[in-house]
Design brief:
heterodimer, A: alpha+beta, six-stranded antiparallel β-sheet, 6 strands, B: 114 residues, five-stranded mixed β-sheet, 5 helices, 44% helix
């Protein structure tokens, strides 16, 4: 249930331990529903979700190119939360041949999504650039590697990315 | 050319227990991690000055053959451990990026011509 107030539009953050698995949403397809919490400013959390995703997909026999695209989307999204938000979480769900990665944060929101999608545009602070991030390529990388990307952002409240990947197709239309 | 051969030819210092038998098919040089995620290719050796653990995730996701850290920079222990667990060799050189890139370029070019 969503709470009211400053973060009213954001779903409550999970308090589950890192990497905990929840019962699949759809028992018939054996869906796996996995959460990873993320803390703003803490790069040590980065990559836990994408690493778990890589091994889950490899265990399912998903083609290497598809695993790579999924991992790039997950990792870039994790990094975005760490750079821009107070906190957030990465959640992924594998149902049949469809992977859905949902990344929700309590961050500043994206004022102009069109601008944020432009390669090279960034609002990342200098400390992130010292770590090699903040080149303005994160969201474009996600868009390029996803089969579908939905961004729901409210300035002052937060951002939710929903990334969909078809696990059965090795490449997508955006790949050269 | 394998990572092991590259280490020998360029006098690199291997810093961890990575998989040095991996084949190198090219090189990518960048300090921006999203740039490597976008443009690095599987099997590439990566030349960078970044040393924190995020480089391991980038190299693992892209299937890079190894990481060469330039300028003799101190590499974080966590980076070396994580890289070893992903079988990614991390090497160090006192040379700066420009010089290292030039040497790797020439070596891979000669290797192709053979």
């Amino acid at each position: 249930m969503a709470s009211s107030g400053k973060f009213g539009r954001i779903r409550p953050l999970t308090v589950m331990a890192q990497g905990d698995k929840k019962e699949g949403l759809d028992g018939k397809t054996g869906g796996q529903d996995i959460y990873f919490p993320l803390n703003g400013g803490d790069f040590s959390d980065a990559g836990a979700g994408s690493k778990s995703l890589r091994s889950e997909l490899a265990a399912l026999g998903v083609p290497a190119q598809v695993i790579r695209r999924a991992a790039i989307c997950a990792f870039e999204a994790e990094i975005n939360v760490i750079i821009h938000a107070v906190a957030g979480s990465l959640h992924y769900l594998i149902e049949g041949e469809t992977l859905t990665i949902t990344v929700t944060d309590m961050g500043p929101g994206i004022a102009d999504i069109g601008l944020a999608m432009k390669e090279g545009y960034t609002t990342a602070p200098d400390w992130a650039r010292e770590f090699g991030w903040g080149s303005g390529m994160g969201l474009p990388n996600i868009k390029k590697n996803a089969d579908a990307l939905v961004i729901d952002s409210v300035p002052g409240e937060g951002t939710t990315l929903e990334i969909t990947i078809n696990l059965a197709s090795p490449s997508n239309a955006r790949q050269e | 050319m394998t990572v092991q051969e590259l280490i020998g030819r360029l006098g690199l210092e291997l810093k961890n227990n990575g998989c040095v038998e991996a084949a190198i098919n090219g090189c990518y040089a960048s300090d921006m991690l999203s740039d490597v995620l976008a443009n690095g290719k599987e099997g590439n050796i990566w030349i960078t000055r970044q040393t924190h653990p995020n480089v391991v995730a980038v190299a693992a996701i892209k299937g890079l053959s190894g990481i060469i850290v330039t300028g003799g920079r101190q590499i974080e222990a966590e980076t070396l451990e994580k890289a070893a667990s992903e079988c990614i060799p991390v090497m160090s050189t006192p040379l700066q990026t420009y010089d290292m890139v030039g040497m790797v370029y020439n070596l891979l070019l000669k290797n192709e011509e053979r």
